[in-house]
Amino acid sequence: MTILPDRHFLLRHPAHFFALGFGSGLARKGPGTCGTLIALPLFGLLMLLPEASHLPILAALFLAGIPLCGIAGRNLGVDDHGCIVWDEIVAFMLVLEFTPNAWEWWLYAFLLFRLFDIWKPFPIRTLDRQVHGGLGVMLDDLLAAIYAIAVLKGAQWWMMQSF
């Protein structure tokens, strides 16, 4: 049985609160995009910490997301319900970690991540269908982040060669 998430669902369990991106996943239109935007201030907080701690923290947030998204998905009745956005938050923070610190690059990073998250090119769509539970929720966004990072790094390299 699928449950329609609302504020009551959000606050019923701490896992729901985090998996639904502090409520951003309750947006009626574009919850994934809203969740991705929540990553921006969180990444700003991450940047206050020593750079050597960024990847371990992102890895911990990814691993924490597996049970958080698993619990929320089980209680919603759908593994990867559209309101679950913790995966977008963590994955986009990872993309920003590899993005030059300039608003134009952050905009490109956002657009590329959303493109790959929605499009789900091979093998993202295959994994999305075959890996279930919290791991499946987190894994497809991690791959979308890797695609976005690869394109961003390619664009950076190309610009350095061209100018």
From TrEMBL:
Keywords: Cell inner membrane, Cell membrane, Hydrolase, Lipid degradation, Lipid metabolism, Magnesium, Membrane, Metal-binding, Phospholipid degradation, Phospholipid metabolism, Transmembrane, Transmembrane helix. GO terms for biological process: phosphatidylglycerol biosynthetic process; phospholipid catabolic process. Coiled coil: none annotated. Pfam families: PgpA. It is found in: Cell inner membrane. Lipid phosphatase which dephosphorylates phosphatidylglycerophosphate (PGP) to phosphatidylglycerol (PG). PANTHER family: PHOSPHATIDYLGLYCEROPHOSPHATASE A. This is Phosphatidylglycerophosphatase A.
